[in-house]
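Summary for the steering committee. One of the milestones for this cycle was to obtain a three-dimensional model of the protein with flavin mononucleotide bound, which we needed before selecting residues for the alanine scan. The sequence and ligand used are listed below.
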Amino acid sequence: MAATGITIASCSPGGGLGLNNSTGPGAAGGSRGALSFDPARTLISYFSVPLTDQSANNREDVENSMHVVDGNVLGNTEYVAQLIQERTGAQLFRIETAQSLPVSMDTLTDEAEVEQEENARPGVKAPISDLAAYDTIFIGYPIWWYDLPMVLYTFLEQHDFTGKNIVLFSTHGGSRLSGTVETITAALSGAAVNQNAFTISRDDMHDAPGEVDSWLGSLN
Ligand SMILES: Cc1cc2nc3c(=O)[nH]c(=O)nc-3n(C[C@H](O)[C@H](O)[C@H](O)COP(=O)(O)O)c2cc1C
C-alpha cells in the first residue's frame, strides 16, 4: 500500500538509523526530515499510568503524572503518544498490565520498587497481535525508579522485534532517559533501535507539541 501520509526514506535495520545521541526534547542531530513514516506500517505502542481521573484538585505529584486535554485526563506518555499519532497518522497500541495497578501514587511507587528489586516480569494484558504488519514500532514509557517499568521488559521479551525499526519516547520526573535507550538497544539486538529518543519532563508537558514536532523532524 502506498504511504498516505509521510513516507519513509530509510527504514531498514542499519540503513541509516540510530546515528544520533539521545539528548531529550528537541534533540536534533543529522539532517532533518530524512525519516518519515508509512502510517499503515507504523505502530505507536506506549505504557502510561495517569494516577487519577480527576482533572483538578490533585496532589502535586499526582497532578504532574497526568495531562488534561479538553477535560480528558491522559497520562503524560499517553499524551506524547497522541501527539505522535496526530503527526504521523500511525495507530496507537496501549501496553497494559494484566493486573490492574494501584491508583495511589505512594502504593504504586512502593510496588514498582519491589518489582524492580525482584526483577519481576508483570503480565501484559494483550500482546501486539499483528506485529508482522508493522515495519516501525514506537515504544513509549515513563521512567520508573531510574529504569523502565518492569512491564516494559515483559513487553520487549514477548515480541520478536527482529528487523523492526524501533523509535523510543519517554517522560520523566527528572531522570531524563536514565540509560533506557542503551537497555532497550541491548535487549532488542535484532532490531534497529534509533538512538535519537525523545524525552520530556512531566513539568514541561505544555511544551510537548513543539518538542515532538522538532524531534520528529530531527529523526533520521
Ligand atoms: C512508580 C514510579 C516511579 C517513578 N520513578 C521515577 C524516576 O526514577 N525518575 C524520574 O525521573 N521520574 C520517575 N517517576 C515519574 C514519572 O516518570 C513521570 O511522572 C512520568 O511523566 C509519568 O508518565 P505517565 O503519566 O505516562 O505514567 C516515577 C513515577 C512513578 C509512578
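Key point for the committee: The pocket of flavin mononucleotide is lined by residues 48-50, 64-66, 75-78, 108-109, 112, 142-146, 171-175, 202 (CB under 6 Å).
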